[in-house]
Amino acid sequence: MVDNDNKADSERPDIKGLFLVSTALIALLVGMSIYSNSQYGIKAELIGTFAIVAALILVGIYIEHDKNHHDPIINLSLFKNNKLTLSIIIYYAIPGVFTGINLLNIFFLQDVLHFSADKTGMFMILYGIGAFIAIIACGKTYNHIGPKKLFVISLLIHSAGVASLLWVHLGSPIYVIILAYILMGLGGGLGANCAQTTALMDFDEHQMLKGSVIWNINRQISFCVGAAFFTMLFNLFCMNAHFQNADAYHLTYLIAVLIGIFTLIFIVKRQKVTL
């Protein structure tokens, strides 16, 4: 009976950890959403700031919880694995960035360029075609080129696609937008597929379950954070009287390009990391 009780305790779900992680994520997303609408008054700005700070505090509490819990819901020690960590970074820098940029660009195309909704949606077909080609290419070249080089290539292509949006304005040729979505599709498909393949490659059967939890949570969070972060940036730029609506879009796109470049520099400098 004692052995059974101990086994039951060891298999008990990490309810506290789940609460901390969920609450931190909610606070972060709500904080960014509220803070982006701070033009409604100082109270909104204070509430948004408080929510973001609360999220950071909850993350700190979870780090301590992870150290003392025998089976935390997110095992932070797994982040010592270079392949998992780098794949997570890539997922924020490519699919996460694209989620936010594409959301904004939908409004940019309709509000600034006066495109119809169906014409705007057609560009996602180009993105899908590019992603499909990239996924096939990744499968054929992964073992020959290796994930690190593929990550670099995907960041270059995806960042070039986002950078192309900087040249999109009222009256600009449509092929610029076509080029942007094809490049983002190629870079996005290559980066996401390579990260998906690489993330859990080193894990044994015992670690695979916990690693899968981290990876699946990361995928969902990256999309949410990408959308909330770039929407917040755009709204903050719109609050500045010096920026017109189109300028706010382009400045947000520029930040996205810089995120890709900084991630690229980070990967290139990690020459000692074996992937």
Characteristics:
275 residues, mainly alpha, 9 helices, 80% helix, flat
Description:
Helices cover 80% and strands 0% of the residues. The chain is an all-alpha fold and 275 residues long. The longest helix is centred in the last third of the chain and has 35 residues, at 205-239. It starts with a helix and ends in a 6-residue tail after the last helix. 36% of the residues are buried.
What's a quick, concise take on this entry?
The chain is mainly alpha-helical.
| Average pLDDT rating | 86
Radius of gyration: 21 Å
Tell the overall outline: flat
Residue stretches low in confidence (pLDDT < 50, at least 5 long) are 5-9
Order of helices and strands: HHHHHHHHH
What does the largest sheet look like? none
Q: How far apart lie the N and C ends? A: 47 Å
Report the strand count: 0
Number of helices: 9
Multimeric state: single chain
Classification by helices and strands: mainly alpha
Q: Could you estimate the helical fraction of the residues in percent? A: over 70%
Q: Into which percentage range does the β-strand content fall?
A: under 5%
